[in-house]
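Tokens help. Consider this.
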Amino acid sequence: RQRAPPPQPDLPGRNASRRGAEQAGTWCAMAVLDLAKLPRWNLEKHFGYSGPFDDRIDAEMEAVERAAKDFCGDFKGKLGEHLEDALTKYEEIDTALDKMSAYVRLRYDTDMENAELRKRQVSIKQKTSKICGDYLVFFDLELADLPQERLEVQYDGSENLRKYKSYIDNVRKTRPHNLSQDVERALTVRAPYVGKTPVVDFYDKELSLLRFKLDDSEKEMNLERLLNLLTNSKDSEKRASAMQELNRGLEKMVRAAALSLNVVAGAWEIENKERGYKNLRSRRNLSNNVPDDVVNSLLQGARVKGVELAKRYYGLKKSILKATQGLETLRWSDRNAPIDVGGTEDTYTWEQAVSLVQKGYSKFSPYMAELFMNQVDQHRIDVPAVNGKAGGAYCHGVVPGIGPFQLLNFNGSKHDVATLAHESGHGCHFILSSCQGHLQSHPPLTLAETASIFGEMIVFRDLLDSAPSPAERLAMLMSKIDDIINSVVRQCSFDRFEELVHTSRKEGEVSHEDICKYWMQAVVQYYGEEGEVFDSYENISHLWAYVTHFHHVPFYVYSYAFADLVVGSLYGAYLKSSEGFEEKLLELLKAGGTQDFVTALSPFGLKPDDPAFWADALEAHLGGLMDEAEKLAKELGYA
């Protein structure tokens, strides 16, 4: 059985881009935060367990195993007559398994240095895989093979079964790529023990243990804090030192990262070949419910129009940094540098961040603002950036009726306010789509970022409108453009890097030296040769080693570009005609996984299956912000 990938933090590279807020110095945000007083999520209240070692989890696992065994005995070979009953029971079992797995996973992600908890998580994974392999793997395979006439007869006799049509259609699309039941069972049962899973888990653990130190006078810091320093400091030399330390620190684990990436790429290649997928991305595209040619159009748009706009932007940024900070050269460590215009040094308490997001959401949708505050008040957000915690940020939907839960690493910057707005959008999406039931609540990845990025855009526009001066408005615009370029151009450069590594893996193991070369090749293709835009690419050769999505979900990264451009177009439609827009967006979010992206976006007049859509969206979304930034910079004498 092919289970959905576990929730992962937003890509570290993308998170780093969202750290381009107007915070001075290095740790001014941390100075006003008492980590011990920041809210932690209350998982036990919502899951009903006393802790990850609660005997109730084991009892529930045993009960689910008995139910799965009965399910197999009752329905294997009988879907042609009893599909509705089988689907209902299958959803119950799937919900129970995902609930237990999610709880232990979430607990582990805030205590990753706990060896006993790590052992417990692995044990739950192994038990879940065995249950799926022994008793559930037949279901999707037989459903995919079910004769259409038998399916139609059952549709005609059951309105409830027709509600599952989207799920059924998606399962049946996999038929050409399914293997035999014996092979699928073996792959499922073995996954936690051999193959990529334990290797990737080891990579995750090594990454979480990394500590960095800039000089003898400072304490060691984890990856999140170093990234926060790197992208929030207005001191160019401090940024350069942070980049050097980041690259040096990652070099310590580059062999483990290379091993994991080789295993992932090798497994991807073998399964693609055995399952008959046409190209490297086809498997991911099918799971995203998006055709290959649409993804190709997106990537082509980013590689041409996106690169053109990015180079134009960094030329502007170089001029502004020279005028405001005296920078004569633009290094890679300056890529996300905040613009220092001598204004207010904005740092935020948690309470202020919540108030800003609530205010922004309320202007667009009072209902979404209410859903956001429910997440805060019900202790569904784990806030502080502490050691032993997973990096980045994510929102886990768990199962309808229990989730969502957000993991943050809050340091008090404008980036952190944006991240709260982003992840809370995911939370609202999960809540709204829960009406579709567990099997159909999760949207395809191409639409999964819609609420999150739209929420972020709403809050950004609210902050922008309150900017106290043209110079500070420019600084905020530049920060937002940083975000968009990193979500679109940088993510597509990540996709290109994956393409290079996976293609090379077909010929044998890829050395960590070659992986570093492919990383630099992708950087040059999307940002130009050294000296063209950036004067120096020093100390960036190992940065690929902390991008976790390369290991967990290959070729996922284009989804960020897809979503950012779609949301940019949605926001443009909202500005042109706001009447009725909230209702249409809420309906899109409620649909969950029951609509493909073309159907979901048609009420807004958007046609993302048109090859010209992506280049036009880049020009309208990114180009429009660029025009405004260039005009302000010229008026202020910075360009």
Remarks:
- Residues 470-505 form the longest helix (36 residues).
- Residues 1-31 have pLDDT under 50 and may be disordered.
- The radius of gyration is 24 Å.
